[in-house]
Design brief:
alpha/beta; Rossmann fold; seven-stranded parallel beta sheet; DeoR_HTH
Length: 256
């Protein structure tokens, strides 16, 4: 029998979820020496506290002020889904000539999917996005200066937002750690939130692109309402009924 208290057990579950990206009820029950129902109860409690999201048979960690996945980790999760979403988002470019591309792996994939056979100016705080487009002959890349965050390889702070405030952009491709109908678009870090908010202010049109697991998730800093978006691009793993609820707030919701 396990001698751990519920609190100790739940702390271990959160650490395991954050270390590997997800946890499995059966594996946790075996590992911690308790019944599956005990683990399910733990996961319900952790979900109530906003630390994990439950899935069928397990859970994955919610990104918060104290925990955020790295770009390296994001590049390994839901990749086929992210590629489909990125291609569809890039397809919304229209006649935009000046574009903001956010930090994060899905925006990086959007950058790689943008057409390079016509003049385009891309403004970004993301070093990987800048690197992906720097070699394209007809694409002019403006990298926002500032402090580089190690986990995401993107710039933040007042240098970044001040430079961004000087632009008027046709379109912004925005990512977020969570999107919910009640709390809008959220991210764990206030410095990142400021850059995103400034990008929305600078852009005539804003497109949010994100995998289905972002929906209903809430992080620490809110930077936009759902109604501020022109479009939401996600996958068919987000149920049609839920997509419809988001569309009632204003944006076109595209599932691919």
């Amino acid at each position: 029998m396990s001698t751990r208290t519920a609190e100790e057990r739940q702390r271990e579950i959160v650490l395991a979820a954050r270390a590997t990206g997800s946890v499995d009820v059966a594996a946790l029950a075996e590992e911690l020496g308790v019944a599956k129902e005990t683990i399910r109860r733990d996961l319900r409690a952790l979900e109530d506290h906003g630390l994990v999201r439950r899935t069928h048979g397990g859970a994955y960690p919610v990104e918060s002020a104290g925990f955020e996945t790295t770009l390296a980790f994001r590049a390994t999760s839901h990749v086929p889904e992210k590629r489909r979403i990125a291609a569809a988002a890039a397809g919304l470019l229209g006649d935009a000539e000046t574009v903001f591309v956010d930090e994060g792996f899905t925006p990086q994939l959007i950058a790689e999917a943008l057409p390079t056979d016509r003049p385009l100016t891309v403004v970004t705080a993301s070093l990987p996005v800048a690197a992906a487009l720097a070699g394209a002959e007809q694409v002019s890349v403006l990298l926002l200066g500032g402090r580089v965050r190690a986990g995401t390889l993107a710039t933040v702070d007042h240098w970044t937002t001040k430079m961004l405030a000087g632009f008027v952009l046709d379109l912004a491709f925005i990512g977020a750690n969570g999107i919910s109908r009640e709390y809008g678009l959220t991210t764990p870090d206030p410095a990142v939130s400021e850059v995103k908010a400034q990008a929305l202010r600078a852009a005539r049109r804003t497109v949010f692109a994100g995998v289905h697991t972002k929906f209903g998730a809430v992080s620490f800093c809110r930077f936009a309402e759902v109604g501020a978006l022109e479009a939401i691009v996600t996958s068919t793993l987000l149920p049609a009924a839920e997509a419809h609820r988001y569309s009632l707030l204003g944006p076109q919701v595209i599932r691919v």
